């Protein structure tokens, strides 16, 4: 794993349309929907459709009517809210297999957060009426939601605290650690391997910084063997160093 090449990274970060996943595969990847019975799954499949969002495209704004909820098939989405002083605060970073807007859709209220594509992404749109009908008759689905959404709320609060720092290194470290919690797997030679391909632009978008600054931070950590990269897949070799960065 050689030195980072900024020009190559920036070139690789140019938006490209990822392969479109099937409705069935996206539903199958969402753990919250695992309790669906066969007939319910078919109903969701028939009523849903795939949609595509470009990098930085707004999927919905806070305050819009929740006519559907979404499940990510590929790419990343950030959920944000506006602070009283006008700045945007990231509340969650979501990746493949995760749903968003579900509670608002079930409760029939407006979306409380804005959803924006961090990377080019495919997502599944399921009408609120479809999931509401299924939710009312499937107790296992309701239990699964309670088990899944509770920890997500806790992580959302942790993320807001981590990304509220004004220091770029802390924000980038927070993004990598948060992604490690959701998509990390133990690597063959140790460390936490993020099982999703990420460009430096992807990380920069999530951390609220520039690509050039992200490259500089990641280069520093790569030289120190804190992180390594292989075909845009990042392995966190020294998680304790990133945690120390957060507490500086």
Outline of the structure:
The protein has 248 residues and is of the alpha+beta class. Helix content is 44%, strand content 22%. Helix 8 (200-207) crosses helix 9.
Please give a handful of descriptors for the protein shown.
248 residues, alpha+beta, Jelly Rolls, Arc Repressor Mutant, subunit A, 2 domains, 4-stranded antiparallel beta sheet, 12 strands, disordered N terminus
Name the strands of the widest sheet in spatial order. 1-8-3-6
Q: How widely separated are the two ends?
A: 28 Å
Overall average residue pLDDT: 84
- Just give the CATH class of the largest domain: Mainly Beta
Which oligomerization state do the chains in this entry correspond to? Answer: single chain
Shape by Cα distribution: globular
CATH-assigned fold name of the largest domain: Jelly Rolls
SSE series? HHHEEEEEEHEEHHHEEHHEEH
Please give the largest β-sheet: 4 strands, antiparallel
Estimated helix fraction: 40-55%
Number of helices: 10
Contiguous uncertain segments of 5+ residues: 1-15
CATH superfamily (homologous) name of the largest domain: Jelly Rolls
Q: Number of DSSP strands?
A: 12
Give the domain tally. Answer: 2
């Amino acid at each position: 794993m050689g030195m980072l090449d900024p020009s190559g990274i920036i070139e690789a970060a140019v938006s490209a349309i990822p392969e479109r996943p099937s409705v069935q595969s996206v539903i199958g990847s969402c753990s919250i929907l695992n309790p669906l019975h066969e007939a319910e799954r078919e109903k969701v499949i028939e009523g849903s459709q795939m949609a595509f969002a470009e990098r930085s495209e707004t999927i919905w704004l806070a305050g819009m009517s929740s006519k559907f909820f979404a499940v990510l098939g590929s790419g990343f989405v950030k959920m944000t809210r506006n602070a009283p002083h006008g700045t945007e605060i990231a509340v969650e970073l979501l990746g493949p297999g995760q749903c968003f807007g579900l509670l608002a859709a079930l409760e029939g209220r407006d979306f409380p957060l804005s959803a924006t594509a961090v990377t080019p992404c495919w997502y599944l749109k399921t009408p609120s009426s479809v999931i509401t009908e299924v939710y009312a008759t499937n107790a296992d689905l309701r239990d699964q939601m309670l088990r899944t959404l509770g920890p997500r709320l806790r992580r959302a609060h942790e993320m807001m605290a981590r990304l509220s720092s004004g220091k770029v290194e802390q924000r980038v470290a927070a993004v990598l650690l948060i992604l490690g919690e959701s998509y990390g797997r133990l690597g063959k030679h140790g460390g936490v391997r993020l099982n999703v391909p990420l460009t430096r632009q992807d990380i920069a978008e999530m951390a609220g910084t520039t690509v050039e600054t992200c490259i500089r931070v990641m280069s520093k950590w790569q030289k120190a063997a804190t992180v390594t990269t292989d075909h845009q897949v990042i392995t966190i070799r020294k998680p304790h160093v990133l945690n120390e960065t957060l507490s500086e």
